[in-house]
Inverse folding.
């Protein structure tokens, strides 16, 4: 079940965000909860940051879906997306993103885009399975602390139609 994130969700979101399996593919390096608070507040202030609830009310994942304004108002950017690593391989991402895409489509969007690190093989396989295609590459876009090299960022897009987009099982 999807719902807007609340201030009370910060510890669960921080725990997922900080996990070794998730951290390399999100924007910030590991930080204590207190340092994460202003970042989390920005996510809440966006009114577009959602948590995904499963199994007894636990947060199983989260994502941000931001609609562009003006001439690009038919486009939604999907980001800050992660699933609790304890739930990897259980279909959580498919249910969560399937629900997000259904909501985005129902709100009249035509296009969804996201950015993913070129070395995020698991994520890229998942996005391609959903029909996202690589539309561009931002070379040396991303640099993680403790790594000598930069990582390319892939721009991926999905055109929605009323008949073919994936839905939650």
């Amino acid at each position: 079940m999807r719902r807007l994130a609340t201030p009370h969700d910060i510890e669960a979101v921080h725990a997922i965000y900080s996990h070794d399996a998730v951290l390399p593919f999100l924007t910030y390096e590991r930080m204590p909860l207190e340092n994460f608070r202003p970042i989390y507040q920005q996510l809440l202030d966006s009114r577009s940051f959602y948590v995904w609830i499963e199994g007894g009310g636990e947060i199983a994942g989260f994502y941000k879906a931001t609609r562009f304004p003006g001439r690009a108002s038919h486009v939604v950017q999907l980001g800050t997306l992660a699933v609790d690593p304890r739930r990897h391989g259980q279909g959580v991402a498919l249910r969560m993103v399937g629900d997000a895409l259904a909501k985005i489509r129902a709100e009249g969007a035509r296009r969804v885009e996201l950015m993913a690190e070129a070395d995020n093989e698991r994520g890229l396989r998942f996005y391609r399975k959903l029909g996202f295609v690589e539309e561009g590459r931002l070379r040396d876009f991303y640099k993680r602390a403790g790594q000598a090299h930069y990582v390319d960022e892939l721009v991926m897009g999905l055109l929605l139609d009323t008949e073919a987009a994936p839905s939650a099982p």
